Every structure is written in C-alpha cells, then in structure tokens.
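Q: My labmate handed me this sequence with no annotations at all. I'd like to see what the chain might look like in three dimensions before we decide whether it's worth expressing. Could you predict it?
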Amino acid sequence: MRAVLGTALFAVVVMAWVQIVGEEATREMSIACIGSTSARAAEKLGLQAVKYPEQPGVDTWAAVVEDCLRERQLLPAA
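A: Here is what I predict for the chain of 78 residues:
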C-alpha cells in the first residue's frame, strides 16, 4: 500500500513539475530517479531521458545526478 501511495505522490509531483517547466523542456532534460520504481513511473508519464542507479539510495542517486549534469556540461568531467 505504501508503495502505491508513494508512486501516486511521485506522479502528482512530476505532473506538477512538467506543467511548470513545460513538456518541451522536459524532452531536453535528463531525469535522475532514485531507483527503478520511480524511473518506470517517470517513463509512464512521458519523460524520455530517465536515468537511475542499479542500486537505489541517496549516494547512488547523487552519482546519477552528477552524470546527468556532466552530460549537459554543467559539471566538469571527472
């Protein structure tokens, strides 16, 4: 039950975020999710460049965020 509520909350937050930034902007973004569950939910909502770590967690998610920023050249190469 908690997983269903968490996924539903995630969907509401992502839909609100997409409305704020616009659908076109999200097509050009890499989306860093904390794990495969949130990644699948993001993909179901139409987000395209969804990335997530093999092992969920804050540290591994932070590494994915860094990778996304490096891809966009917003962080120097490691």
